[in-house]
Amino acid sequence: MNVYPLVMAPSFRHGPDTPWGGHALKELFGKNAPDEITGESLEVSALPGHESRVANGEHAGKTLRDLFPLWGKSLTGLSRSSFPLLLKLLDTREPLSVQVHPDDSYALTHEGKPGKSEAWYILDAAPGAQLVYGIDTHGESLRSVLEEGKLESSLCRADVHAGDVFYIPAGTVHALGSGIRCYEIQQASDLTYRLWDWGRTGKDGRPRALHIEQALSVSRPYKVPQQAEKTEELSGGRRTLLVSDPHFLLHAYDLSGRLSLPVGKMQFLTATAKGCTLCWRDRQEPLLPWQSAVLPAGLSEIAVEGSGRILVSTAV
Rounded to whole angstroms, how far apart are CA atoms 36 and 9? Predict the structure, then answer.
């Protein structure tokens, strides 16, 4: 079976779907965004209606879902037929809603689909940018905090700089603030429960829907501890483990030549500002700055050449 690295063309969420979005996906990252207000570039996605497509090789134009019957387990390395992860780049001109995602147990029981844990790697941030990262109710129930109008004062905020990493396991109350561009790896789920939307209204003058009871059921009031990073030197660069989740691993590779990647599991590789070159067997494929590729689990070898940082998320 002739599996090969799949360079992906993203899908976009924009306009009324992301009223908080801006122009940075086009201006900073060179994306062919369809709208002046575009919040999300779905780099690797099998979500119905927002599927990214293969941009190279014999399967150009196909979706990841199209490749399941052709490559099967050689694509994902997993026995299940659903695609496990979703990779996005985001641009926040305005803050996102304060939200929380359920874990697998709650989501499968109540929604019939997987839950969502995720992680953010900050690519760029305006001076003074912040995000919401956990909540401290000071011993009160979250319901009481909401009913007493004390939610905003209970939110834990973190300053944001390029290179920062935030791990957001299911149950974590969180919100990206304004002026942030980030890489997001997550379970392939669209389940989001909004606790608060800063009192905003849409174009119709009505506030967006909140999901208070569901959010109360799944939220864990706490400030999330950061994970300790682990770095190892390799031939051709070094690798740093940024996040370890039961569903995915997120590594940063700092390249200084040609570096071999592990095989046997599906990986998403995202080039940053300098781009890189993918190498396998006797073939090569350039990856432009801010492009993403799927490295199928069935590859017997894969290396990357270049200088600077790349981000690699691995399905577990």
Answer: 19
Q: Domain ends where: 218, 244, 269?
A: 218
Confidence (pLDDT) at 126:
97
How many independent structural domains does the chain possess?
2
| Residue 194 falls in the annotated catalytic set | yes
Please report the DSSP string for 220-257 in residue order.
Answer: --SPPPPPPPEEEEETTEEEEEEEE-SSEEEEEEEEEE
In this structure, are 160 and 284 located in the same domain?
no
Which one of the listed residues 194, 208, 238, 283 is annotated catalytic? 194
**Rounded mean pLDDT of 130-159?**
94
- How far, in whole angstroms, is CA 58 from its chain's centroid? 27
Query: pLDDT tens-digit profile of 20-46?
Result: 999 999 999 999 999 989 999 999 999
Beta-carbon contacts of residue 121 (< 8 Å; ≥ 6 apart): 163, 164, 165, 182, 183, 184, 242, 250, 252, 311
Return the CATH number at 76: 2.60.120.10
Same domain, 19 and 76: yes
The model's pTM is 0.96
Task: Report which of 291, 250, 271 is spatially closest to residue 117, judged by C-alpha positions.
Answer: 250
The tens digit of pLDDT for each residue in 215-242 reads: 999 998 777 777 889 999 999 999 999 9
Give the H or E element holding residue 279: strand 276-280
